[in-house]
Amino acid sequence: MINVFPRESASTWLGLIETTPSLVFDPEICRRQWNELSSALPRVTLYYAVKSNPYPGLLQTVANEGGCFDVASAAEIKMLEHEGIHASRMIHTHPIKTDTEIEKAVAAGVNTFVVDNVDELWKLIPYRHSIRVMLRLSFIAPDAPIDLSRKFGAPQQDALSILDVANDSGIRVDGLCFHVGSQAATANTHADALGVCLDLCEQIRDEGLPEILRIDIGGGFPAHYTGESVNLDAFCHPIREVLKRVPEHLEILAEPGRVISAPSMALVCRVVGRAKRRDGWWFYLDDGVYGAQSGRLFDGMQYRMSVFTSSDELSPCVFAGPTCDSIDELGRYPEFPILNMNDVIVFHEMGAYSLASATQFNGIAPPAVVTRALPELRQGYGHLV
Ligand SMILES: Cc1ncc(COP(=O)(O)O)c(C=O)c1O
Known about the structure:
By secondary structure, this protein is α/β, with parallel strands linked by helices. The protein is 26% helix and 24% strand. The model has no long low-confidence stretch (mean pLDDT 96).
């Protein structure tokens, strides 16, 4: 969705930042998302997925709400420690880790790890007296555009045999976990997978294997990329229905990333070059897919845009990022105002998997980040392209 606003009103955004491109982080939105999801998932302990956005201000905001953290590496543990967050509030959920990574995480005090195969279990043997392990199973949500169960997750039918090996090796696997895929349209697969895990807990007990004490339902909670707010309470309803079956002693965890980070940041860019070419006007912005917009390539994302320009002449146009690579293209539009140099573009819901995967390609630095309240965009102020 694209809204066009008069050029002068860009000052509302430019007044917040020192330079473009900049990401603007709004702690209030982060808090609102955290609290909405917490209320929608009573009795579920939320572990924020640091990989979705490790900006220190965001980590602090989640920590101040009493949140816990899901980490994938020793570097993420260090970032959290730097913010004064203790390892007792972290779980390490990467299913494949080097020995060095495990050693560093254990040394830092992290005591929960994830495996999805027997070879990964062997790596944990040296630490078996001090750690707890969760077995990741594969459940794929057909309505989640970003798959996370092709690369990771044991097939459900392999669960008992992996748990048998763990038991024989003296490794305490007392948890089950899954990730149904990112940006799920419904929580139906979360709910079904939780139900399957509850049934599996009974089979595990019947087999005489150590009891499962926690189930981690992963991430996948959606952000509102279209600007329409997602009702997290309604989204989580199917999960709450299955939660009614969960026995008292069983702890339930979740690892939300995108739903917390995406709405918390907007990206302010500028037109730094333009050229009329065979296929229309090309507008070159100061951020692209090698910067904060890699989600366009990795996740097929299209971000909501506000364009600030005094132009009203329309033409076919192409948006591109600042690098010399032609893959660094951001979108083609059959009719778009012919922008001028320094016109401002704001991309919304830009906090997830943006800063976290931004590169220095071509020597171009990722966007700066500032903490400010995001301006309210008044309805009906511009027009829709
Ligand atoms: C293990 C794990 N947990 C949590 C997340 C966060 O997922 P989402 O951003 O969809 O909430 C991811 C995303 O890649 C992940 O790999």
